[in-house]
Write a structure and sequence with these properties.
The structure is a single chain. By secondary structure, the protein is an alpha+beta fold. The chain has three domains: 1-78 and 217-389, BirA Bifunctional Protein, domain 2; 96-179, no CATH class; 412-503, Rossmann fold, CATH 3.40.50. It has helices at residues 4-17, 39-58, 74-79, 82-85, 102-128, 134-140, 142-163, 167-176, 220-224, 227-233, 279-295, 342-351, 377-388, 425-436, 450-460, 470-475, 496-504, and strands at residues 21-23, 35-37, 63-66, 87-92, 99-101, 193-196, 200-203, 211-214, 240-249, 264-274, 304-308, 318-326, 329-340, 357-359, 364-366, 369-376, 389-393, 399-403, 414-418, 442-444, 464-468, 477-482, 488-492. The strands form seven sheets. The chain has a seven-stranded mixed sheet. A five-stranded mixed sheet has the order 20-19-21-22-23, with helices on both faces. A three-stranded antiparallel sheet has the order 5-4-6. Strand 14 and strand 15 (364-366) form a beta hairpin. Helix 5 (102-128) runs parallel beside helix 8 and helix 7 packs antiparallel against helix 8. It is globular. The two termini are 31 Å apart. Bound molecules: glycyl-adenosine-5'-phosphate (GAP).
Length: 508
């Protein structure tokens, strides 16, 4: 397949052409970093949500789901630290007038050094062949060691400057590393300044002294402020979890890479409340559990990697990113964070309401600790479609584009296709469609040659096509065509539903 940039462009074009994702307000030239999901995208998105919700809420007896409002009392965001600290360090290039995140510029520079190391290793591997000892080479090669040292030094200086909010030092680092603007090529930078990522608005009429409200930048706070409501009304004992799916909003400065980084997006988050001291154990548990969830989708392990954070957010005592190999490289897909009692403690302090749990086993009251799993629904969507998109050359030399989406997540499960538009085949097709539609989302199509209809279904990832032919009218059997292998088999009409149900079942 073409190079990765090309492949990514093709995936974006395919998403538009086949009704998965459209640019928001496209007829007005679009709104940057905001996207709409089309008829197939909305189905795929709903199926991902359903898989997540079932895995969390239905398969875990100790987790319940809620749906909190997007608007919350402004004091929530003060307590959570978002008003004061949910910032990105920004820098502008004076020549191109382009704005960048200073941390991203530095990360990209580090990524280039990492690439150099990998190139060095691959070169040596070729040179030494079977006798190559990679671990030893990484430990001893002077060029590799020099770059490792450079990376460690940059990271250390950057983290220290950011933590102490010494923005001048970050600018100095960018200048010292010789980082140039990718557009103008110049090193003519402004000072670095902090930019808060929350969108704000006014609630109530301005004349009555309206209060400033924020569009939530994460769904988690809706869970924290409801923790006691759920614990009491659900008579929950620790450990237990609360799950939620909902919109979040961030005024991202560098919003690009399609639905990877958006200004309006959806999160699927779960907060697991545990006894203080047991959080590390649960952190390990959820790390493993979430990887299993991803791997159950059939995407090979090599496309995932985990990245333990060295620099921890002020509220965490451990954090890991589950990274996925997107067409533009490995990037964060999901985070698992051990958030201590930071959030509940802060809400207890700011609201003046006790948020403690009385533990009947130890006869003690305490603020629970929290382990959080947080995944972006849109990023999950992008991970699935970018892995599923495949261009194939078939045996007869023809080409097809197929979306090998895990059948359980595919937008349409079954296409019902009469071979011809005559001889009573459409009527029989309609009859089958009208029965199957109660079990699965199906599509009926009788226009164009059957081969073209198969291609259209392949392109949206439909796992099964049912074809009605003349034999169907004689013995009530149809052919069922499997998307990936294109194999067809003959099955009785009354078994279609149970066969499809069996084949699309998904369990983490
Ligand atoms: N409650 C924790 C939290 O919000 P985060 O790492 O800031 O943590 C969690 O976000 C997940 O949300 C990320 O792993 C990513 O999948 C998704 N996400 C964050 N910002 C996003 C954006 N601008 N566009 C799309 N997804 C985003």
């Amino acid at each position: 397949m073409a190079n990765t940039e090309d492949r990514f462009k093709k995936i974006i074009a395919h998403c538009k052409e086949y009704g998965f994702i459209f640019q928001s307000s496209e007829i007005y030239d679009g709104l940057s970093a905001v996207y709409d999901y089309g008829q197939n995208g909305a189905e795929l998105k709903n199926n991902i949500k359903d898989y997540w919700w079932k895995s969390m809420v239905q398969y875990h007896e100790d987790i319940v789901g809620i749906d909190a409002a997007i608007f919350m009392h402004p004091a929530v965001w003060k307590a959570s630290g978002h008003v004061d600290a949910f910032n990105d360090p920004l820098i502008d290039n004076k020549d191109s007038k382009k704005r960048y995140r200073a941390d991203v510029l530095i990360e990209e520079h580090v990524a280039k050094l990492e690439e150099k190391i990998e190139k060095e290793v691959r070169k040596a591997e070729k040179r030494f062949g079977d006798t190559f000892d990679e671990a030893m080479f990484r430990k001893t090669n002077p060029r590799v060691l020099a770059n490792i040292e450079k990376i460690a030094d940059i990271n250390k200086r950057f983290v220290k400057a950011l933590e102490a909010d010494r923005l001048g030092e970050i600018k100095a680092l960018i200048e010292e590393l010789g980082i140039a603007c990718p557009v103008s090529g110049s090193r003519n930078w402004t000072d670095v300044r902090q930019f808060n990522l929350m969108f704000s608005s006014q609630m109530g009429s301005l004349n009555d002294g309206a209060s400033q409200v924020y569009l939530r930048p994460e769904t988690a706070q809706g869970i924290f402020v409801n923790y006691l409501n759920v614990q009491k009304t659900g008579r929950k004992k620790l450990p237990f979890g609360i799950a939620q799916i909902g919109k979040a909003f961030r005024n991202e400065i560098v919003a690009r890479q399609f639905v990877f980084r958006m200004r309006e997006f959806e999160q699927m988050e779960m907060q697991f409340f545990v006894r203080p001291g047991e959080e590390k154990e649960w952190y390990e548990y959820w790390k493993e559990e979430r990887m299993k969830w991803h791997l159950a989708l059939g995407i090979p392990t090599k496309h995932f990697r985990v990245h333990e954070h060295e620099k921890l957010a002020h509220y965490a005592n451990a954090a890991v990113d589950i990274e996925f190999e997107f067409p533009f490289g490995f990037r964060e897909l999901e985070g698992v964070h051990s958030r201590t009692d930071f959030d509940l403690g802060a809400h207890q302090k700011h609201s003046g309401k006790k948020l403690q749990y009385f533990d009947p086993e130890t006869n003690e009251s305490y603020v629970p600790y929290v382990v959080e799993t947080s995944i972006g629904l849109d990023r999950m969507f992008l991970a699935i479609v970018s892995h599923a998109y495949n261009e194939e050359t078939l045996e007869d030399g023809s080409q097809r584009v197929v979306m090998n989406i895990t059948p359980a997540l595919a937008p349409i499960k079954v296409a019902v296709l009469p071979l011809m538009k005559k001889d009573g085949l459409p009527e029989k097709g309609r009859e089958i469609f009208d029965t199957l539609k109660y079990d699965f989302l199906c599509q009926y199509e009788d226009k164009d040659a059957i081969g073209r209809r198969y291609r259209r279904q392949d392109a949206i990832g439909t796992p099964y096509c049912i074809t009605i032919d003349h034999q169907t009218l004689e013995d009530n059997t149809v052919t069922i065509r499997e998307r990936d292998t294109m194999q067809q088999e003959r099955i009785p009409v009354e078994k279609i539903s149970s066969i499809v149900a069996d084949r699309i079942r998904l369990r983490p």
